[in-house]
């Protein structure tokens, strides 16, 4: 098995803006690794409980106004890792 040394990426930040339960606009800023879209909801890590478990806020997509993410550096690192893997596995470009 060939080991591929993947870089430890700076994943960037994300901002999600959505309508809160009281109708007010809510904005949350998190690391990109703490936000994901799944099953028609945006899921955002908002902290940890007393036992060290992640606390996740699920926000239905119809309440979300926008999500803004900075990912350029992450994409550059992924591209570099893919190129390196192709070279090591002799897959060509």
Low-confidence stretches: none
Q: Strand pairing plus helix content: what structural class?
A: alpha+beta
Helix content: 10-25%
> What strand order characterises the main sheet?
2-1-6
Please specify the SSE layout and strand pairing.
Blueprint lengths: L12 E7 L5 E7 L3 E4 L2 E8 L5 E7 L3 E6 L2 H17 L5
Antiparallel strand pairs: 1-2, 1-6, 3-4, 4-5
Structure description:
This protein is of the alpha+beta class and 93 residues long. The protein has one helix spanning 72-88, and strands at residues 13-19, 25-31, 35-38, 41-48, 54-60, 64-69. The protein has a 3-stranded antiparallel beta sheet, with no helix packed on it. The longest helix has 17 residues, at 72-88. It is elongated. The mean pLDDT is 84. This is DUF3006 family protein. It comes from Halococcus dombrowskii.
Key structural traits:
6 strands; single chain; 93 residues; alpha+beta; DUF3006 family protein; elongated; 1 helix; 3-stranded antiparallel sheet
Q: Would you summarize the structure shown here?
A:
With 93 residues, the protein is of the alpha+beta class.
């Amino acid at each position: 098995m060939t080991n591929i040394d993947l870089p430890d990426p700076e994943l960037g930040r994300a901002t999600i803006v959505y309508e809160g339960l009281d109708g007010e606009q809510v904005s949350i800023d998190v690391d990109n690794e703490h936000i994901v879209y799944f099953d028609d909801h945006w899921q955002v890590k908002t902290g940890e409980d007393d036992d060290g478990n992640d606390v996740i806020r699920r926000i239905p997509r119809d309440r979300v106004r926008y999500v803004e993410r900075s990912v350029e550096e992450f994409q550059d690192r992924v591209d570099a890792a893919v190129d390196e893997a192709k070279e090591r596995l002799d897959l060509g470009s």
